[in-house]
Amino acid sequence: MIDTKNKLLLSVFFGLFFTSFLFGQYSFKFDNPNQKRQRVKFQLINNLIILPVELNGKKLSFILDSGVNKTILFNLSKNDSVGLNNVKTVELRGLGGDRIVDALISKNNNFRVGDLVNRNENVYVILKDYFDLSGKMGKTIHGIIGYSLFRNFIVKINYKNRRIDFYNPKFYDKDPCRKCETLPLQFFRNKPFIKGEVELNDSLQTTTDVKLLIDTGGSDAIWLFEDTKPEIKTPEKYFRDILGEGLSGTIYGKRSRIKAFSLANFKLKYPTVSYLDTVTTKNARRFTERNGSIGGEILKRFTVWMDYPNKRMILKKNANFSRDFNYNMSGLDVVYSGKILVREENMAEIKDPYNQSIPNNNSVRFVSSFSYKFKSSFRIKNVVEGSPADRAGLKSGDVIIRINNRPSYELKLGQILYKFQERANKKIRLLIERDGQRMRFEFYLERRV
What we know:
The chain is mainly beta. The protein has helices spanning 133-137, 147-150, 296-299, 388-392, 413-419, and strands spanning 7-8, 18-20, 29-30, 37-41, 43-45, 48-55, 58-64, 71-73, 84-85, 87-94, 100-113, 116-126, 143-145, 154-158, 163-167, 181-184, 186-188, 191-199, 208-214, 222-225, 239-246, 249-257, 260-263, 266-269, 272-276, 292-294, 302-307, 312-317, 332-349, 366-383, 399-403, 406-407, 427-434, 437-444. It folds into three domains: 29-166, Cathepsin D, subunit A, domain 1 (Beta Barrel), CATH 2.40.70.10; 178-317, Beta Barrel (Cathepsin D, subunit A, domain 1), CATH 2.40.70; 332-343 and 374-445, PDZ domain (Pdz3 Domain), CATH 2.30.42. The strands form five sheets. Strands 17, 18, 19, 20, 21, 22, 23, 24, 25 and 26 form a ten-stranded mixed beta sheet that branches. The chain has a six-stranded mixed beta barrel with strand order 6-7-13-8-12-11. It has a six-stranded antiparallel beta sheet with strand order 4-15-14-27-28-16, with no helix packed on it. Strand 18 and strand 19 (208-214) form a beta hairpin.
């Protein structure tokens, strides 16, 4: 509730897909205007950059998302409660459809990322859990930050070493490297767009120019919006797959693969691509020149300089450049499902006071003890229709106990998802719990495109 000082303590959630009414706001700057650089290490989870951010003195974790022009706050527990200033009610509209949701806007908040500060930041607060983004990441995510952190700096994102350098443009005089490519940026509502080329057909040697949103907050390689150009149509070979969560529920697209995608002289072969229809992308198509997006599966193959002050992006390929474009071949959408109490057995050899083994008829004696620890659990949120997991009989809500004979609590969410992308025809064995009963399933990963 809001107190007499017009502050708010809330537990809130948000997801990646939204558009909003526009309000002016300030942006970050160096606390010391003569500082040349600020380096920040980040986590890379599901191709998304997770940054440490302070909001009004509270340390939180935010996704760095070039595809949003507003700062979003969600998923605060009681321990993470933050005082927010000057709160008013607003409405937000989702990516898929016309649904409008209630939210709050809080003004004049203090943000800090290392030595970068913004003492007058607007924050949007979402009041209902639509997305379960923390469950999808396997880590608590408190919010999303974008334009205000990019605006005043030359931002170098080193995906390979997982660090970001924020350079002060006043002191940045480095020329692009010899093996780099420089591309101009175009902005629409403070979101960056880039021109690229796609080769859509294996049999034809033709390319199609496309204008794409640079979306560091998207995990996929490429999204294309159907019919934004005559050539952009769903190919014959595709399957319906889960792309994310929207205000109206799970967002699906048509997963396929194209011959090539080029940015300047960098050519990526056979990337995966998802085609989205007009209804799903109604609000995203307000920029009529837009044909889709490129996300983390493309960007992580480069060191990326996002230079908003000079309206350019610089790319240098890294060791990931030539890796295959893989995807989840199981059809399972698995999320983190909280902590469970796990009993672990500990075996210790019995020794004498001098720490020597005590012989007993050529045998060694052990003492067994048990400890109880809270471990991560995982559940199936969605199953893609017609996928290997669907045909095997797995269902939404199933709790995963073991994967290929390994307890699921020994794994991180990213490790589980990697098992579903490793190689076609790999056998997956699952022990799950459904309605209090344990059941076994097995299936083979299937490359459908």
